[in-house]
Amino acid sequence: MHGVYVPSSRLVNLELFRQINKMALKKNGFIPSSAPEELKKVLVAVASVWGDTIEDMEEFHVFPLKGAMTNEVFQINWPTNHGDLHQKVLVRVYGKGVEVFFNRDDEIRTFECMSELGQGPRLLGRFSDGRIEEFIHARTLSAADLRVPEISSLIGAKLREFNNLDMPGPKNVLLWERLRTWLSQAKRFCSPSTAKEFGLDGLEEEISILEKELTQGYQEIGFCHNDLQYGNIMMDEETRVITLIDYEYASYNPVAYDLANHFCEMAANYHSETPHILDYSIYPDLEERRRFISAYLVSSGNEYSDAKVEQLLSDAEKYTLANHLFWGLWGIISGHLNKIDFNYLEYARQRFQQYWLTKPLHLSS
């Protein structure tokens, strides 16, 4: 793992950060003198762990990072006591209302476990509204990177490694329970007209149909990322090592669902002028998907057959239906909770449209 690391036994106590004024971090530049004392103390404490003495708050440089749709993420730099070098950390401020989507305590435990396994950025500290993470010295992938065969194969191999992780806790499929919970929440937030527009009253039946049709005894269940969009994938340019980040939605699910999610994300570009618009004309073609699944299977070192590739390819296409409902419901709920500049409802509308458009292609009944 690249970058800096504070051993878990030396985690900074960041409860002082609990009343952070996020407006203090909105602009590129310095931590202003008007920032809360709690914020200043925490940043100084984190720096001191690495032997850096901060005399002036203007030594901290703040850079908001774009592309997050649930949290607000910032890079904070400061000069070290070792010449011209600069230290970096990533500060993640949790979005409001995210407890609707997942249990934050479970997510923190997952992050800590992943950190200990060396599978992602290390946890440097926690506070009530977020956490401080290791800053990984690798670049976040772009939408275009997912179409590069070499990079795509590296992602496939890394996803296989991720799916094979033996994580603590129950190993039951969470997908169907989560869909039903989110449907209930979406109905609670929506007006009757919006609920009718999105056809929410009929989705309980749709979820049941999918669960019955897609659940097969032969399918492999693994620890799934469930949100493998390009912004959650980083690559070291020198070593070509892939790191998966952001495990908020991670859980045990059929691995075919994780593949389906990644394929669906290839229709998105969250850094365009219209980040909510999905372009399904660039959904990966059959050869791209087959190549990705082949790289996924061969990476485990086990023998695999063409029949195995074709079966997983077929299963993944069917699970795109569940994926459309998953993120469609997410979009409806987020549109009522999140203030990030993103057209969540239009995003949801597209996911539901794609569900109804492709359902006849993937289900026999």
TrEMBL record:
CDD domains, alphabetized: ETNK_euk (cd05157)
Single GO cellular component term: cytoplasm
Alphabetized Pfam families for the sequence: Choline_kinase
Example GO BP: phosphatidylethanolamine biosynthetic process
GO molecular function: choline kinase activity; ethanolamine kinase activity
SUPFAM superfamilies linked: Protein kinase-like (PK-like)
InterPro entries listed in its UniProt record: Kinase-like_dom_sf
Gene3D superfamilies, per database record: 3.90.1200.10, Phosphorylase Kinase, domain 1
Family that this chain belongs to: Belongs to the choline/ethanolamine kinase family.
Record-given protein name: Choline kinase N-terminal domain-containing protein
Organism encoding this protein: Gossypium tomentosum (Hawaiian cotton)
